[in-house]
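Listing 4. Sequential folding, example run.
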Amino acid sequence: MPLLIFPWRKTNRSTMGNCHCLSSSAKNVKANPIDTTFKLPSPLPAWPSGGGFANGIINLGGLQVCQISSFNKVWASHEGGPDNLGATFFEPSPLPQGFYMLGCYCQPNNTSLFGWALAAKAEAEDQSPALQRPVDYTLVWSSESVKMKKDGDGYLWLPTAPEGYAALGHVVTSSPEKPSLDKIRCVRSDLTDQCEANSWIWGPPGASVDGFNVYSLTPIDRGILATGVPVGTFLARNGKASPKDSNIACLKNTNTQSNTYMPNKSQIDALLQAYAPFIYFHPDEVYLPSSVSWFFTNGALLYEKDHIQNPVSIKPTGSNLPQGGSNDGAYWLDLPVEQGAKDRVKKGDLPDAESNLHIKPMLGSTFTDIAIWIFYPFNGPARAKVQFFNISLGKIGEHVGDWEHVTLRISNFTGQLWSVYFSQHSKGVWVDASGLEFQDGNKPVTYASLHGHAFYPKAGLVLQGSGGIGIRNDTAKSKMVMDTGLRPSIMAAEYLGDAVIEPPWLNYCRKWGPKISYQISDEIKKVEKLLPGPLKSAFDKFIRSIPDEVLGEEGPTGPKLKNNWNGDEAV
């Protein structure tokens, strides 16, 4: 009998359980990645004690929930969806005593099995119990009439919730008979929140946008103060609808003591020891990161609009920087005036570079986000690919001061790393742990692009553009590497109160670099001289379509002014 791992119990082993798979009735079906269960390279450590972090169960106020990551397979298609490899539908199992399923789990077949679904238990039964059986089911879709490779037939059912309750997921069966009403539980509406379709999971072969499709779900409101909790279930629907038009709800954390499930300082240290990423810089990179204090003590200057001829040296902690206010153009930072010092500061100081950490609750305090901010004194010029031509863009892309970040998303149920966000200019991408490269155990590998410093999960070229024309984002391993766990500094963790004192520079709200005075049109003309006639106008159109942050016309604001400081990451 295969080993079952119980995710709600504290353990030093990975919490990914084994999957009980049904035999496939489809003929000539090749093994897919989902047939392998993903596990982190190393077992989870024993986290330091204290509070409710990584204890397996979280009290949402009226409901206790646990994160189940072991499954029984119910039904699978072997076509449609990402890479046309199909998708597999599971029930979370086994459940701890007294806990109920809220919905089934579904995942594309093109990745290793790696996911979870919440199970719930009512804290106390009263006249309005937190959990109720559905009163009926509606058949949303079946595979009976769909010609494709599949494991028999699958049926997707939507629970009909009693009045005052909401369904949080679907039930999947391999039989046309309605599921038992005891199979699943609906949740009292005041304990739920709105959610929306997130990423596409699957659609039958040839399915259109307005046909039948399956999506993952996420709370509509996401941020430090948001209370929506994802359940790990999916949305199945027929017909075109708004991404926010969901008949499935998520949970709501109504517990006023929810921060007790966030990691304390000793647990944060342990999380960094386990998961702090390595950042690899391109072999040709000359503009490396530094600490903020190194930038200040090596000649960075504070300029004031009304006294531009008298810039001021900046104290190591930024204590003489203007605090608060808004990005009104009244102040900005710049490199030293003397050319030798300016050229030296531009290059940064990698051995001195620090990881500036923002620790924050996310998804109703069921996850911890560790945003790791890296500062660069200078962002180098961009390079473009114009079909067969690789061209330096002169001053385009240059600016003083550059803030980039990578974010670890960690389960507060277990302390397991679930995904990593890679910032890429004004947006970025989330990558599940199953899609990451690791080094020295469970530490993700990150690649910083040449000159632009955008972060990517894999080495190589990513072209920011279309039609063979775009900004080059080149990444590669080199001997220049930063272990973000060596010099970490917690710059903010609001939920810890006075235990973390924010550095003065964090509350400087103006630009970290001056507005560049060059004319973009002149730079474009220099590049166009190198291009054949037909490509000139296409290149000009592309350059004028990219955001100012990439063009580098002025320095950026600091981390605290970014939308993701209080909200979720932009994708």
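-- end of first protein; second protein begins --
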Amino acid sequence: MTRAFLIGLDYGSESARGVLIDAASGQQVESHVHAYRHGILTRTLPDGTPLPRGFALQVAADYLEAAADILTVLGGGRQILSIGAGFTASSPLPATETGAPLSEIHPGAPHAYVKLWKHRAAQPYADAINRTGGDFLANFGGKLSGEWLLAKAAQIEAEAPAIWAETDRFIEGGDWLVWQLTGVEARGLGFAAYKAQYSAEAGYPSGVVPGLAPKLAPPLAAGAAAGALAESWRQKTGIEGPAVVSVATIDSHVVLPAIQAVSSGCLVGALGTSAAYLLLSDDFRPLPAGIEGVAKDGAVRGLWCYEAGQASFGDTLSWFVKTFPRGAGEAESFAAYNREAAVLAPGANSLLALDWWNGNRVPFADSELTGLLLGLSMETTAVDIYRALMEALCHGARNVVDRFEAAGFTIERILMTSGLARNNPELVAVLADILERTIEVPEIEHPTAVGAAIHGAVAAGIVGRFQDGAARFGARAFKTYEPRAANAAAHRALYRHYQNLSADPVLHEAMHDLGRLAATRSGEPSGR
């Protein structure tokens, strides 16, 4: 009998990962990583064109190069039953009617490129949309984030009208990837609902961005089949078999079945460069204050999924160890900092931080807010600061959990996943202390890519439901972190101060003014 496999693709901010799974045994056979050739463009385009402040772009061709490499390494000469993809979001791009990225036609035009989720220059357009308001904001806390598709569309329409006029499709990177792999434009409901405010009742918001409606398309539920892998890709990669491709899903959402989070009451934190928190529910409740969005069937079919997050998580700690290294490389620096931070008692460093190194998502949806470090003295050490940053990230997570519970949601389980949850146990231990809750970390390699593979399995009919896919291909074991009662009082005091600082309008005003001043004095275009 011919051996058959599934492939799951996980497209992150700087690289893509693929995993090959044996369809019969459910075991991971092989994985492969491909770093994007051009990385993240923040200063110049590939041709040297300077970028305005706050831009974060990518080259769409890098996604195809990654797919060709991964699919060839994992799938060449093999029977592939299905392919699923998770993709970081919101990362939309303008394309022609045939799917050609406008960046290939206009390589010197910044607005022709993919706008990565951390592109901050669209926030003023989100603010303008929020001031006007509309019913489409009801399930999103009454306001958009500058990270999302509508704000980025508004920015292109206002700042590059010629590019906007030439745009036939404005499409998330994950949806575009599936389009290229299959030849079928099939958009995922998760992207449409959470990042473009689509609803089954009203469709996409109308009258928000001129000319946007014809550039979009109705989405399909999570786990739907987009089509089979195109013949050109079969020839390029050597893949054989049905190779049914599912619609793409937001990367933090696609992980859910891989970690057995497929039931009501599960709260999952995907701790990566940023952090996303997802709460699954059988029933709909009005959106809790400050929580970002809710939709049904976009993450796990049959369940409502509430979403919130932190715009900066792992990249805050990474920034610190790169800026103030304690070893020959980043891994060695992390090990040194974690080892020394672990012996510090809560509050012993006399520091408190706000975790807004890349803006704030919950509860302010304001990408212009910035980080804060309070309590510095001549006795402060680098380890003290690192510990304060760890605690700030965990305080931001508790803020999310508290808002769900204050709105009457029952949280049965808390799971943390992604590389940071497995690779930084000290951070998860502090998180359990600050949440005062048990945390489970699934012991599974490459969970996001495995989750994508399960989506593909559902699309191909290999399993009937996400719950079946979770049982067959998902995590089998979990590492448990229990809160340490001895640390509770100190952490409660620190969290109370964190909440008070977070809500201070004087701080918000200062952060905004500092950003405007920096844009003015740097001589860079503001992007406004």
